[in-house]
């Protein structure tokens, strides 16, 4: 009886040990220790490419990163993402699976989740959202999302700013219902979706926005209203983009990088398009069919440092000789744009 008990408890202990300390046989675990006497450790667990039966998988405590990519997983339930190791998870990779519907609430136990990769799935529908999670990066690229309610990104409490990558979906619309809390997303990647217009992202303190490869044909005065914190805007590879209306970018006073490359149907950019871009440092116009740029581009873009015009044609700002202004009694540097290929006239 005693022996049995002992055996039982040893088994229980072993089980505990298995759940808590050791790595699942098929997965690859890598432990990193930090701190005095290695008192603090983080474990990365790679369970990729093992097939759908790998879930639910028990992971060691203090797992910081779990890779469940390329497993042919079709659905994920909240119960799958719970257990000792999951509470410490800061990064979860579910890319390259077959998930068609994503209910964001399955991640609700992952209180420290910062990075979530859901790219290359079959996600058409995203419900319930990621509210309450301190997400720093969400990759929803290469899915089939038709519609997204920006409520899914709402932060319930004033958590850390987070970024969301929705690139390469089949996103058709982004809607936003009345929000009780401001959105705090810093980086949003909506590349490769089916957006036909720029979604209303007002009230989000976005810093990075990518709308590449969407069937947007017109950028207008409403497109970027209120996005005054935006630093980086990518509007590249837009097969239908023909028009950027005057004053469309005027709210983007902090924008430093604007990528308009590979827009084959974009033929003109009026001077008024650049209105308000006082911080813009880099402008990429590679592979556009622009015939000219406004002659006063340097006055329009007082902070500009470099413009990529064509393949192998890069232009940058130089200070010409200083002129002494007798009237104002000070030297004034005169700026000019120079390109590394002769014959480019701006
Ligand atoms: C997730 O896994 C995929 C495939 O293994 C990999 O390409 C991707 O970089 C991973 N994502 C993150 C955020 O590490
Ligand atoms: C999402 O999952 C939660 C928890 O399992 C459930 O209560 C909720 O109804 C689900 N939402 C939808 C729209 O399916």
TrEMBL record:
Record has Repeat as a keyword: yes
Name this protein carries in UniProt: Tsukushin
Signal peptide from the UniProt entry: 1-22
Keywords, comma-separated and alphabetical: Leucine-rich repeat, Repeat, Signal
Single GO cellular component term: extracellular space
Keyword match Signal: yes
Organism: Hemibagrus guttatus
SUPFAM superfamilies: L domain-like (SSF52058)
